[in-house]
Amino acid sequence: MLHKSLLKNKKIQEENLRHIAIIMDGNGRWSERKGKIRTLGHKEGFKTAKKIVKFAVKRNIKILTLYAFSKENWKRPKIEIMGLMELFFFALKNEINNLNKYNIRLKIIGEKSFFNKKLQNYIYKAEKKTLKNSGLILNIAANYSGRWDIIQATKRIIQAVQKGILDIKKIQEQNFSQYLSTSELSPVDLVIRTGGEKRISNFLLWQIAYSELYFTDILWPDFNQSTFQEAIDYFFTRERRFGRIKK
Ligand code: FPP
User: Fold this and answer.
1) How far, CA to CA in Å, does 131 sit from each of 1, 42, 144?
2) Is residue 219 part of a domain?
C-alpha cells in the first residue's frame, strides 16, 4: 500500500516538475577566490554541469536548460571567451557517447550562426547523433538572449503573415510560443540561479512567465546534487496558482 502511494507521489512530482532552467553563475569568483584564472572556474563549472545532468536523469526531469553563454558574454576578455569556446568544443567532441549512454537528447538554442563554422558543424552533428534519444532533453543556451529569442520569433511571424500562412488576427500566446527557439519544449517550471545575484540577465523571458524562481549564494562550481535537491524541495513547497486564487 505504502509502496503504491510512494509511486503515486513520485509520478505527481514528475508531472509537476518537468522543466528546470539554470543560470550557472559564479565560476569567475570561484577561481578568483582561489587565485586562479577564470577559465579554470569554467572548467570546474563544466564538471558541475555534468553531475547536475546525471542527477536530473536520476530524478526523471524531462528538460534541463543550461545558460552556457549569453549574447552579452562576448564583451568579456578574449582569453576568457576562447577558453569557453574550447570547452564547448571539448564537450561536443567528448560527451556524445555519454549522452547516448544516458538516453539524453542534446539541443542547442541561441544564434548559432555567430559561432565559427567548425563549432556550428560540431553542434549540428551532436544534435543529430542524439536526436532519437527519448530521455532527458539537455537544452544548452549558447549565444542566447531572451530578447533575441522574442525578436527572432517576431521576424518569423511577420514572414508567415507576409506569405499568407498566418492570419494576423489569429496570433495568440499559444502560437507565438511556437516561433520561439523553445517551441517544442514545455514551459519552465523552475529557474535556479547560483552565485548570489537575484536577476534573470536576459535568459529565458517569455518562457518563465509563471516559473518558480530559486536563488542561492552557492557559486556554480560548488553546486552539487544535494544543493540541487534543496532547490527541487523548495519548488514543491510552492503553490502554483497561475493567476487563480488559493485552492
Ligand atoms: C557565469 O559565471 C558562467 C558562464 C558565463 C559560463 C558557464 C559555462 C559553463 C558552466 C561551462 C560550459 C557548460 C556546458 C554545458 C558546455 P561567471 O563567469 O559570470 O562568474 P562570476 O559572476 O563569478 O564572474
Assistant:
1) 39, 27, 21
2) yes
Q: Report if residue 98 sits inside a domain.
A: yes
Q: How many domains does the chain have?
A: 1
Alpha helices in the chain (DSSP H): 2-16, 27-33, 38-58, 78-94, 96-101, 117-129, 146-162, 173-177, 225-235
CA distance 177 to 189: 16
User: For atom 11 of ligand 1, which residue has the closest CA?
Assistant: 46
Q: Hunting for cell 514545455 — which residue is that? A: 186
Residue 97 CA to ligand 1 center (angstroms) comes to: 23
β-bridge partners, 142: 69
CA gap 24, 44 in Å, rounded: 11
Pocket test for ligand 1, best of 20, 24, 90, 201 (most atoms within 8 A of CB): 24
Domain limits for position 121: 17-145+187-236
Written as one letter, the residue type at 239 is E
3-state secondary structure of 34: coil
- pTM check: above 0.85: yes
Helix, strand, coil percent content, the chain, rounded in steps of 5: 50, 15, 35
- Res 160: pLDDT: 97
How many whole angstroms separate alpha carbon 39 and alpha carbon 82?
9
pLDDT tens across 72-119, in order?
Answer: 999 999 999 999 999 999 999 999 999 999 999 999 999 999 999 999
81 occurs within a structural domain: yes
Tell me, yes or no, if 73 is annotated catalytic. yes
Residues 6+ apart with CB under 8 A from 191: 20, 21, 22, 23, 200, 203, 204, 208, 211, 212, 213, 214
